[in-house]
Amino acid sequence: MFTVVFGKIAKIPTDGLPQMLFYLSGITAWGYFSESLKATSNTFVTNANIFGKVYFPRLAIPVSVIISNLVLFGIQFLFLIVFMIIFYFSGYSFGPNIYILLLPVLLILMAGLGLGFGIIISSLTTKYRDLTYLVAFGIQLWMYATPIVYPLSNLSGNIRMLALLNPLTSIVETFRYIMLGSGELNWMNLLYSFIFMIITLIIGVLLFNKVEQSFMDTV
Assuming Cys at both sites, which of 67, 101, 175, 210 could form a disulfide with 29, CB separation 3.0 to 4.6 Å? Predict the structure, then answer.
C-alpha cells in the first residue's frame, strides 16, 4: 500500500533505495515502538482484575510486554533481511555496515520510549478513560511525523528542525542507515533521543508508581 500510494502516486523519493525496502525498513523500526506503546498504554485497565487480587510489582506487566514484542520485531526484521537478499541478487547494491552493532542500542531506545510513553498514558487513562480512544489515532499521526514514508533528507529548514524534535526520527534514520546504507547517522541526534527516553521513563515510572497506589478506586 505504501509503495502504491507514496511511491507511485505521490512519487515521494526514497533516497535511491527500492521503494519496498525503504518503507519496510521504516515500518520494521516503527512497528516495535508503536506496538509496545499501544500494549503498555492499557496496562491498568486490561489488568485490573489481576492487580486487584494479587500483589506483585505492577511495572512487571508493561516490561514483560516490551520484552515479548521483541518476537514481533524479530519476525519483521527477518522479512526485511529476506527482501534485502532478493533485491541484492536483483542487482541493487546496498547492505548492512559496521554500525549494525548499534542495533541493540536502537532497540533499547525504542523499548524505553514505548515503555515510558505507554505507562504515562496508562496512568492517565485510570482517570481519563476517553484517552484510550485517542491513542491509536495519535500513534497514526506520530507515524507520519516520523520519516517512515519519506527520507529526512527530503526535509529542510524549519520542517527538518521540527522533525528532529521527534525522538523517533533519529532512531528510524539510523536503523535505515545501518541496514541499507541510506539515511543519517548523527550522534548528537541519537544522544537527544537517549536523553528524551530517560526523561520520559523517569516521568512514567514516577507517575505509574503514584497511580498504582489508588488506581483500584478509579478503574
Answer: 175
